[in-house]
Amino acid sequence: MHRSTLTTRLITSVIALVLTPIALILLSVGGQTMILTFFAYASDGDLASLTGPVLLQILGLALLILVVLTGVWSSAGLIAIGILSIVPLIVAVFPVTLSWLYGIAPREWVDGFVYGLPLVVLAALGAMGLVLALVRRDPRPKGAALGVVGLIVAPLLLAAGAWSITWGIAEGTLFALQRFEFDVRPGPGFAVVAGALLVIAGITVTRWSRFALVVPALVLLVGSILLVVARDAVMPALFELPRGMNTVAPSLLLYGGGAAAGLIYLTFTAVLLRVVAHARSAGAPGATTPDTTVHAQYPHAQYPQAQYPPAPMQHPYPPVPGQQPPAAPYPPQPGP
Length: 336
Hints:
Low-confidence stretches: 288-299
Order of helices and strands: HHHHHHHHHHHHHHH
Number of domains: 1
C-alpha cells in the first residue's frame, strides 16, 4: 500500500487535533449535567431531564468516530492525538495541576480530567494509530492461533488497565480534591501510568487479532446504557467496588467514557479491516499477492511461431548461378 502523502497527514492531524478536544468538552459538559440530574432526579426515574446531556454526548461521540475514521487515509492524526495523552497523565500524577486548570478553564471542561476521561480516550486513539501504521507496512495474517489468543488477552489487558486507572484516580486526583492535599502520591500515579500502558497493550493486540476489541466494546456499551435505563440494578453493583473506585467508575461511565471507548473500539475494528484489505490489494511488502516483478522486468520476447513438423529444406536443382562458391583457379596461384 502506498504511504500517505504529506498533505493527507497534515489534514488528518488537523482534524484529529481540532475535533478530539471539542468531543471531550462535549462529553464532559454533558456528563457533569447528567451526574447532577441523575442523582437529583434518581428517585422518580424521569429520564426526560437527561435529553439535553445525552444529545451533547451523542454529538461528542460522533466527533470521536470521525477522528477514528481518519485512520483510513493516514495514521498521523491518531498518533498525534495520542501524544497529547501525556497531559492527562501529568494531571493524574501531579494533582496540583488541577488547581491550575480550574483557574484557566471552565469547571465543566476540567471535571473530565478528574475522572480520567481524556486519558482513556487519548491513549486509546494513539494506540490505534500505531496499530494502523504497523499494519500498513505488513498486513500479513499472523495465524488463527494468535487470533484466538488475542480474543482472550485483549479483554484481560483492557480490564486490568481500566481497573488500574480507576484505582489510581480514586486514590490520587479524587483523594487530593476531597482532602485538599495535592502532594504527589507515587502509588496512585504509578497505577495510572501502568493502566494507560495496559490499555495501549490491549489495543495493540489487534495487530494479530483483528476482532479482539469487539467483546470489550459491547460490554462497555451495554454497561453504559444499563447505567442510565436500569440504574437501580446497576448502581448497587458499582457501589460494591472499593472505596473511591465506587465513585470514579460510575462517574466515568456517566461522563461518556465507557460509551466513547466502546464506539471507537468498534469503529477502529472496521477501519482496521479496511486498511488491511487495501494494503493487501495494493501489494504492500509482505502482502500475500503474486510476484509479478520478474515478468515486468523481463517481458516475453515475441518470437515467430515455429512450424511443426519442420518443412523439408528445398535445394534448387540445377544450382542457380551465384549460389555456388567460385571455382578454384587452375593452375593454383601462389599465396600472398
